[in-house]
Amino acid sequence: MATQRILDFLATRRPSGPCLVVDLDVVRDNFRAFEKAMPESKIYYAVKANPAPEILRLLASMGSSFDTASVAEIEMAMDAGAPAERISFGNTIKKERDIARAFELGIRLFAVDSVEEVEKIARAAPGARVFCRVLTDGEGAEWPLSRKFGCVPAMAVDVLRQAKVLGLDAYGVSFHVGSQQVDLSAWDRALTDAKKVFASLAEEGITLGMVNMGGGFPTRYLRDVPAAQAYGQAIFEALSKHFGNNIPETIIEPGRGMVGNAGVIKSEVVLISKKADNDNVRWVFLDIGKFGGLAETMDEAIRYPIVTERDADEKSPCVLAGPTCDSADVMYEKTPYPLPLSLTIGDEVLIEGTGAYTTTYSSVAFNGFEPLRSYVI
Ligand SMILES: *Cc1c(COP(=O)(O)O)cnc(C)c1O
């Protein structure tokens, strides 16, 4: 939703060209909602969702920790005021020299999902804490993370055992249930696997202390999603079911759920046309597309709410496309998007729920279009 502050900003500043406007008040509310819904969990904001310095500074000042994926993200979090103890290097795919640099910067918490990565960490970050990521099925997620990260629970046991052998602190298990996860039972399924790893290692005398429950908390696009409180309840019940009254330290890593609904993109209609006189589907071209920041429309996975000033008028289905000369730059075609028949070239449209995964996905200058501009207010 565009907040009044965002609407006022756009009305007074009238930025030309497409831009993202993020309302920090919404980020603050989201952080508090996570704290309230999961009071026992530490919050590690997933920096990649939106690394704007104002957002990182706000969250650092509120006591958030940070999940990072590169040395650059670690430095951004530190520049925003986060001490190294509140930063994890959560990418399971790291160069050894980046691990060493992170260690030099004071980072002591690292993600792994293979023995090969454990060996790098043992060499470059001796004695550090590691947690092993287990695969999840991603079912129920609108932006699943597939098989790229994690390993099966049986292998996680081997990975953590080897970490211990190599002098690391075998600290815990992590998972990510898939982004924009709207199935509350997804955490229960993943915690079943996490518990297996805890139990197997306990039999060998290795006691794990932490479960990193990742991100996946959704933001509202066209459909309602459960509130943070509902997620907190489901997760607490799943933790109790699997760990009884011996619940380990827990971490959550919200990205989308922290910033998605805090941002709105302002865009402009560049062209409305048809491919044949008798077509009943219009093509609407905006000044932003897949390469300008809306990469998550890939496979039409994320459907953003689009607001125009003519929404009271009758609507008809449109193909929605971006302005670049790449034929892949079409956002919605398989499922056309209903837009007002009265929509006109030059009209402004607001694309809501775009605070996460937009600015960082926009290309540098494809076709000469500048990267998505962002204002944090
Ligand atoms: C991207 C990512 C997140 C954030 O995921 P959301 O679905 O945006 O909440 C959390 N943890 C890790 C390891 C990630 O890669």
TrEMBL record:
Its EC number is 4.1.1.17. It is an enzyme of class 4 (lyase). Pathway: Amine and polyamine biosynthesis; putrescine biosynthesis via L-ornithine pathway; putrescine from L-ornithine: step 1/1. The active site is at C325 (proton donor). The modification N6-(pyridoxal phosphate)lysine is found at K48. Its cofactor is pyridoxal 5'-phosphate. One of its GO terms (cellular component) is cytoplasm. GO terms for biological process: putrescine biosynthetic process from arginine, via ornithine. Belongs to the Orn/Lys/Arg decarboxylase class-II family. This is ornithine decarboxylase. It catalyses: L-ornithine + H(+) = putrescine + CO2. Residues 26-259 form the Orn/DAP/Arg decarboxylase 2 N-terminal domain. It comes from Aminobacter aganoensis. Pfam families: Orn_Arg_deC_N. Keywords: Lyase, Pyridoxal phosphate. One of its GO terms (molecular function) is ornithine decarboxylase activity.
